[in-house]
């Protein structure tokens, strides 16, 4: 699906969803800015926009269409024979966390940023694109005055969308800590290990994106105007804080895992203690029963009239003495 928005340099909406053959005309008008959003496009739509209209470099088109595991940013300058204007190509990942599945889902968002155009490409619905488009159409904050300003708002929205995911993760970790303390089952252990794996995955996502935003925050690219560099720096700072928060979650999960192991160890020790006490308390019964179970004729108690009662009394008294001694030592 191809969506297009045309804005004036004052940030007002000029037109939307124009025909593809009109896009080169809009690009030649210095008073207009074109934003084209490709959501789950067909190969024909991808070719018409990325190749036929904008003539982007084949390598950037390939990186855009193929799933990229790591965020990246590259600057393309035209050489002799190239038809494309200078532009930045950027790959960023948005995240969402599902407590039901216990995994972080990533959505890849690709940017082609030029002086008077912005092309975004994504395979599924992107919350950041939808929110930024709504703000741009309403004219909120004049965000549609230039492509770099819209790109900043997209990145800012992506980073903001990390916060609900991290809130869900924080609640999940708190529940795991409670479960590890109260009822440390094997299911709890599996859940702790799964969430810890997802936190590591989150840090693997955030790390490369910090490098991308760091380059934007340092003002390395001429297509990002100087007065917008502090805004990109603010997005970088927010992502840095999220990265630190993810590290604290990883440390918390390590502590939860240690808590689980300690509680499980204490439970095992309690079970062994009970079994040991049972064994010790039943030792007199076992000794007396084993002794008189040998059935030797020379055992005089067999011929006693009250020998059976004597054996029972001996068992009861010795067991009580063992119990009293253990209570005095504080073992019971």
From TrEMBL:
Keyword Ion transport annotated: yes
Keyword set, alphabetical order? Cell membrane, Ion transport, Magnesium, Membrane, Transmembrane, Transmembrane helix, Transport
Q: Which family does it belong to?
A: Belongs to the CorA metal ion transporter (MIT) (TC 1.A.35) family.
This protein's record includes keyword Ion transport? yes
Check the record and name the Pfam families matching this protein.
CorA
Q: Name one GO cellular component term.
A: plasma membrane
Q: What protein am I looking at?
A: Magnesium transport protein CorA
Query: What membrane topology does this protein have?
Result: Multi-pass membrane protein
Record's function text: Mediates influx of magnesium ions.
GO molecular function annotations of the record:
cobalt ion binding; cobalt ion transmembrane transporter activity; magnesium ion binding; magnesium ion transmembrane transporter activity
